[in-house]
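FORM 12-B: Structure-to-Sequence Request
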């Protein structure tokens, strides 16, 4: 019997603090007019000091679980796609697993820059289709404000913070993720990167002095690349699936620049109203932009059960990808659950486990010393 991976829950979390273009114009030599006409962005959200990639991811995950009616302990796999993870390791996904009380889940991060959510969705869907798992949480989460140079007008005007999440569930009913394409061109690695802080260029006083821990981007080559692959990606995934463009209800693209989307729409000969665009409110939230846009579309009734949707994205790597899905919504047997309660319980559980680990290490060290 065939198994299908359905998108049954969705959620988003954005920081409360809004930074407008006018706010930015007080910090760098730019203007609301320049940012709006060159990118379409009007404002973005900036994380508070007590927020992080993991906390935003966990908030979005809890929303998604609530929509799907899935208890955290029933999640088999958590994938967090992020360009601004909490650490090189451990994975942000493990922190989310602990925060939400997903006690059974395997958890890992996926690094494919802004294309990460599409890659992650495809990986989770494959794991469900093969029968390996039943339920997955796929999250895109970012605090890009922590890794952009607030003195570099070429980059700081573009990015924002936020997280979005999908719940994927197995079902025998046809629908859900239909097909996907994933591509990379590492020869373009240097046009969009975080040069330092990894093993090639470990953190040092020198890397910090030279601002190498900030996002480095050459806007024009990225723009040219993006306009090419956005339309190509949509066409390729539809050709692969043997699915006609006319039957696609909605395209949910990575939200980087409205001009990139306008070029893609023109190449595909589609009106702009086929595209979900919300970058005016959030800027480029990298891996989070597609699930945030999907959540807003679903919550407003623009994306409905049964609709065919193409997710398409591009980003550092360089990477690009597209995924065709039939939107499902919660499964019929959806129970009412309160993931917030699990979250509270998860906090207590985590504190207990930490304490136990401390006590055990004291006991074992005194045993080793013959105590
Ligand atoms: N305010 C005012 N002027 C600016 C600003 C700013 N914020 N930023 C750049 N400029 C200036 C430049 O210095 C340049 O001045 P010059 O002509 O005197 O040298 C001029 O504006 C034009 O600069 P361009 O780079 O040619 O501007 P362009 O029209 O290409 O727009 C932009 C720049 C918005 C960055 C565009 O290239 C773009 O969107 N590129 C793609 C970026 C992208 O999508 N990145 C995300 C990838 S996803 C990921 O993986 C994170």
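FORM 12-B RESPONSE
SEQUENCE OUT:
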């Amino acid at each position: 019997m065939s198994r299908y991976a359905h998108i049954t829950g969705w959620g988003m979390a954005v920081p409360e603090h809004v930074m407008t273009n006018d706010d930015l114009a007080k910090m760098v030599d730019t203007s609301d007019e320049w940012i709006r006409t060159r990118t379409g962005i009007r404002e973005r959200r900036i994380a508070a000091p007590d927020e992080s990639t993991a906390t935003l991811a966990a908030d979005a995950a809890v929303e998604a679980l609530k929509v799907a009616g899935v208890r955290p302990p029933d999640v088999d796999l958590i994938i967090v796609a992020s360009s601004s993870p909490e650490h090189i390791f451990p994975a942000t996904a493990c922190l989310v697993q602990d925060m939400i009380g997903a006690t059974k889940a395997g958890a890992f991060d996926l690094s494919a820059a802004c294309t990460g959510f599409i890659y992650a969705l495809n990986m989770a869907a494959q794991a469900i289709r093969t029968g390996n798992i039943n339920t997955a949480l796929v999250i895109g989460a970012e605090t890009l404000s922590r890794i952009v140079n607030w003195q570099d007008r070429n980059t700081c005007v573009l990015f924002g913070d936020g997280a979005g999440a999908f719940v994927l569930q197995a079902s025998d009913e046809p629908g859900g993720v239909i097909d996907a394409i994933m591509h990379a061109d590492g020869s373009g690695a240097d046009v969009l990167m975080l040069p330092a802080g990894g093993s090639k260029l470990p953190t040092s006083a020198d890397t910090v002095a030279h601002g190498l821990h900030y996002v480095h981007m050459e806007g024009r080559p990225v723009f040219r690349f993006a306009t090419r692959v956005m339309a190509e990606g949509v066409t390729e995934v539809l050709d692969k699936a043997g699915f006609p463009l006319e039957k696609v209800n909605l395209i949910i693209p990575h939200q980087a620049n409205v001009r990139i989307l306008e070029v893609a729409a023109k190449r595909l000969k589609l009106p702009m109203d086929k595209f979900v665009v919300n970058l005016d409110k959030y800027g480029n939230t990298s891996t989070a932009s597609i699930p945030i846009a999907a959540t807003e579309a679903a919550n407003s009734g623009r994306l409905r059960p049964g609709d065919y949707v193409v997710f398409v994205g591009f980003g550092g790597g360089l990477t690009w990808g597209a995924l065709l899905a039939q939107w499902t919504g919660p499964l019929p047997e959806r129970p009412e659950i309160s993931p917030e309660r699990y979250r509270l319980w998860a906090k207590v559980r985590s504190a207990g486990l930490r304490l136990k680990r401390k006590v055990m290490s004291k006991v074992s060290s005194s045993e080793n010393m013959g105590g």
